[in-house]
Structure prediction request, 175 residues.
Amino acid sequence: MKPAVLFLIGILPCAIAGAADPAFERMTSADYAVLMRDSTHAYNRKDYAKAFPLMQRLACGGDKSSQFTLGGMYILGQGVGKDELEGYAWIKLAAEFSFTDYTSLAGKLTQALGDEQRAKGDARAEELHRQYGLVATGMSCHGEPRHGGYVIDSVICSPPTDGGQVRVRRCGGKP
Prediction:
């Protein structure tokens, strides 16, 4: 067989499996934008009971700003029981994308933890990374100026597209 045919035969099962992967949900780009908007609006209104599950869904999908916010919600007990190590792990995961706000807070939290707590938090962060990091989710992120100009002050992430829809990693399950 020709190399091109062998290549296509090799990737076809992967493409079919990826389309039906239960670890991901498919939705329209518009539905994803509504999910992003609703999570931000609920959080800004301090409706943490509504914001938490929306932020968690987006954080599992690989959105770095949602991971960062979710970490803060755990640390402060907003919409969820206070859990500083879980919050640390999510913030450390957000810092996978080297944005100053994320890396700075992750560094401060790392310094504030004792050795035993830090080891537990780092282990949890590694577990989250395997499930919800950039590679696991296929998310693509970049920095952007929110208010024009040249200062990068926000992170924009986009999920992978598949057949005109976006694929968003679900919470739970194995990586």
